[in-house]
Design brief:
19 strands; alpha+beta; metal-binding; 36% strand; catechol 2,3-dioxygenase activity; Glyas_Fos-R_dOase_dom; eight-stranded mixed beta sheet; 282 residues; 5 helices
């Protein structure tokens, strides 16, 4: 998982707002296989290895159900270490009768499902980067049917035991209101590189030659509004930069393009042109 460590910039953690914390905890423990790292009456921090936060879920006051056709989360994506891990996850979901989507993206194989609030989740395993194809500087991806029968053979009769300890937050995919200013923000501001453009509706960005750390789309409509503050959905996601110097340079780049940057006791935050909040970490 070389694309989720130095010298790459990558997504490390996501925080979601949910309607019912107890219901969501049950789902994320029993279905997804997280462990609870910390919890309180209104919030829980979840982990795969018992020490590293990957997902936080919070129940806001006066929470509203997920607003349709707004900006925010399309899905967050958990990267599993091996194809065998993905096979055991699929076996587990079938046993639990979970409704799934499934795709072969050439660079990866992926399973898709929603949490009880409609927050999208992808669980995937990468193919070796040596097998990815690049054409004119863009990685070749597709959405083809997953060969589930072939994948399940990789389980080798072993049962799902929860998320593997080496599972990571592989990427995040966001609904945005437009792409021109959004592209400037992520490329000229945050320093990502464009690796795939799907017409006028979606962009995929990465650092270090990954197939994508961030996906952006306008599938909820150009001009989609931001959800209400207390709506179910994305609260923030975090980006990890290789060094403090890199983060300082990114903060300067963001300010140079007029993007908002807040510094609260050394904790830097920003938001993209569609209002998606981002924490800038080292």
């Amino acid at each position: 998982m070389k694309f989720h460590q130095k010298p790459c910039t990558f997504v490390s953690q996501v925080e979601l707002k949910v309607e019912n914390l107890e219901r969501s905890l049950s789902f994320y423990e029993e279905v997804i296989g997280f462990q609870i790292l910390e919890s309180s009456e209104r919030k829980a921090i979840l982990t795969a290895d018992g020490k590293t936060p990957l997902l936080s879920i919070e129940q806001p006051d006066n929470v509203k159900v997920k607003e349709p056709r707004t900006t925010g989360l399309y899905h967050f994506a958990l990267l599993l270490p091996t194809r065998a891990d993905l096979a055991r996850a699929l076996q587990h979901f079938i046993k639990m009768n979970i409704r799934l989507g499934a795709s072969d993206h050439l660079v990866s194989e992926a399973l898709y499902l929603d949490d009880p609030d409609g927050n999208g989740i992808e669980i995937y395993a990468d193919r070796p980067s040596s097998a990815w194809s690049w054409r004119e500087g863009q990685v070749v991806m597709a959405t083809e049917p997953l060969n589930a029968e072939n994948l399940l053979k990789e389980a080798n009769g072993e049962q799902w035991m929860g998320l593997p300890k080496a599972a990571l937050m592989g990427h995040i995919h966001l609904h945005v209101s437009e792409l021109e200013k959004t592209e400037e923000f992520y490329l000229k501001g945050l320093g990502f590189e464009l690796v795939t453009r799907y017409g006028s509706q979606a962009l995929f960005l990465s650092t270090g030659g990954y197939h994508h750390h961030i996906g952006l789309n306008t599938w909820n409509g150009v001009g989609a509004k931001s959800p209400a503050e207390n709506s179910v959905g994305l609260k923030w996601f975090s980006l990890v930069f290789p060094t403090e110097e890199d983060r300082k340079n990114i903060v300067m780049q963001l300010k140079n393009i007029g993007a908002p940057v807040r510094d609260e006791n050394g904790e830097f935050t920003t938001e993209d042109p569609s209002g998606n909040p981002i924490r800038l970490l080292v």
